[in-house]
Specification:
The protein is an all-alpha fold. It has one domain (3-259). Helix content is 74%, strand content 0%. The chain has 12 helices and no strands. The protein is globular.
Length: 266
């Protein structure tokens, strides 16, 4: 595996973003709107709720972390779709580039773009008196689990687009919304029906939000639960990469990759 070829994917994304204002704005615009909207909502809830409970870390903090997860996933898919939309996919794999190097480039591109969104969210959150720095380094493992699961979902989504064509991208964007009811972003998992709680056990973000909710309320997060979430997230990365590789090899074998077009679906 060559780091130079992996970094070349990142450089390509950098030049694309640098040369287009329409690609720069989405890096921070929607997350900024989300943070402002939820910031004012939590401020209002604090004025009408019983004294002593602070909605800012409970709700605004959860929204910030969930938006961070979505930025990671969308960062990978957007970098992949840039090659699809420009019909550059065949050109890339006509080179000695390995699939692992290409996936690594997508991940690094996602880290760079999501960092911009995260920085904007943290600045806006500070205006609403939310600071993760008061919790110290204990927040980092939770961010790591969300980061890893975002990578796995991004790779999985890219594989679906590779298999079914660019028109299937509309199946990909709702994926975080489909996952969110099961992971307890804004409410404890215990409020869910029993069958949904079983699904939550297999989703790493549920361990993240349950653990952080415990910390915000003055308790301690379960180390074993966080470890379970981490193992699940890593496992999903391997499964997603295996799925992506299998779809790619199938596309090569069947000639689907040569017939790739915007009208291809199925």
């Amino acid at each position: 595996m060559s780091f130079h070829r992996t970094f070349a994917i990142v450089i390509r994304q950098f030049y694309l973003i640098r040369g287009s204002f329409s690609r720069v704005v989405p890096l921070f615009a929607w997350v900024a709107v989300d943070m402002v909207l939820w910031g004012f909502l939590t401020r209002y809830l604090n004025t009408v709720a019983m004294p002593g409970f602070n909605f800012v870390p409970a709700l605004l903090g959860a929204v910030l972390l969930w938006d961070f997860f979505i930025r990671i996933m969308h960062g990978i898919i957007m970098a992949f779709l840039e090659d699809v939309w420009s019909r550059n996919f065949l050109n890339i794999f006509a080179t000695p580039l390995l699939m692992s190097e290409y996936a690594g480039g997508l991940i690094l591109s996602s880290i760079a773009t999501s960092t911009v969104g995260l920085a904007v969210m943290l600045v806006i959150a500070t205006a609403f008196k939310l600071s993760f720095f008061v919790y110290g380094l204990m927040v980092l493992p939770f961010l790591l689990v969300l980061f890893l699961f975002g990578i796995s979902l991004g790779i999985f989504g890219s594989a679906l687009v590779l298999r079914f064509g660019p028109a299937s991208e509309w199946f990909i964007w709702p994926l975080p919304a489909l996952v969110s009811p099961f992971v307890g972003v804004l409410y404890p998992v215990a409020t869910l029906p029993h069958w949904m709680q079983w699904i939550a056990r297999f989703l790493p973000p549920s361990y993240v939000f349950e653990g952080l909710r415990a910390i915000v309320s003055g308790g301690t997060a379960s180390g074993w639960a966080l470890l379970a979430g981490g193992f699940l997230a890593v496992g999903y990365i391997f499964l997603a990469y295996g799925f992506f590789s299998k779809i790619y090899k199938s596309a090569l074998r069947t000639g689907l990759i040569a017939r790739y077009s915007a009208e291809n679906l199925g």
